[in-house]
Sequence to fold (423 residues):
Amino acid sequence: MNSGSSLFINDEIDLTQGAELLPTGGATSDCYRVKLYGKWFFLKRLKEKLRSSPRYLALMRKEFETGFQLEHPHLVKYVRLGDDFIITEFVDGTTLTDFIATHADFFNNKQNTLRLLTQLLDAVAYLHSHQVVHLDLKPDNIMITRIGNDLKIIDLGFCYTDSFQDTIGGTERFAAPEQFNGGRVDERSDIFAIGRLLEQLPCAARYRKVISRCTNPEPDRRYPTAGAVLKAIRQCHDRPRRVAIAAAVAAAVLAISAGLFFLRQPGVTAPVPAVEQDTVAAPTSTTAPTAALPTTTALAETQPSATAPAVTQPSADSKAATTTTKQKPSIAALHNKIAAWLTPRFNREFGAYRDSASSQIDKFAYSNRFADFRSRQYRRYLNENGTAPYEERDISREYSKVLLALDHDLYIQMQRNTPAAPN
Fold:
């Protein structure tokens, strides 16, 4: 194909007239912005020392003939082939390299990033579906438009196709190992470069696992297609949403389980979860000092059985029996241990509510504080005590029972402080 087969059949271009040299040239070419028929175009011309090289002239011909047959909104359009130059559409924008440097906040918005990566991977998938492997995907070969922030892939100079298999190399920082060690290149070579591209983004940590698989030195261990990479990226965006939904559901369940004392009617008490039948002795008669909240022993006034019995020492006979049979430690013992650990912390956290009436409490603030206390202290309990020899589900269940009993005690105290309704 020569210049006569292009869209501008009889036009000759005088590069000395009206051509604007651009700072985006590479090692083999100079780049210009030129105007034809009142419209701007991008012109790439071989450097003077290479214009007589059959190899580089063939590579330029390969780039044009490959690009001219492609039509995708996120691939630059090829317009004309000259003796030693190529003309493409002009993209009014900046390279991804410069865009990252000047628009770092753009990537804080997950939807912005997902939109750009979707455009990139759609275009790469399109190339692969037409038996074209780019082999030089890098930030300098990706343009971001000034209006709309849309993505365009440029420069097919190193691409591999069925007809043109001389790829001559790539950019070492982004190229897959097989491009330099004599291995077989295919679409997975572009997948490697996509991983390197993701590493350059300000939000790269979000895609840590995707990057790791993309850049595996072994092609068989990379994602097989651009579509598979896009699916993995979308999962990275969906995972925080799923976690947030789960956390919101858990918080709602916790709020309901906590009894929401401020919604109870006067004189109606919430049932207190019963401890398994193997509970040890009932709580001692020792009461908390007036400066602290009443402990769970106060429930004896409204509930026959206490939910947070005091810690008691098993008898010598029971120790011997446990040692002989090697039975699993009693759940009641776990319950008592948690009660002894959690009660003073609850009293310190919520002691200021002791003299309040339930009608005087900021309900929303209390709910948030209660939920935060539950999760914070639960993590602290596990850090200090571990889980052995119990299952963590047992610890979580007994922890919730103790905390609900303490919350109920607080409610009872505040109900006592609530003035009686006038007759």
User: Anything to note?
Assistant: Confidence is low (pLDDT under 50) at residues 1-10, 268-311, 320-325. The first helix runs from residue 54 to 68. Strands lie at 20-22, 29-36, 39-46, 78-81, 85-89, 93-95, 142-145, 151-153.
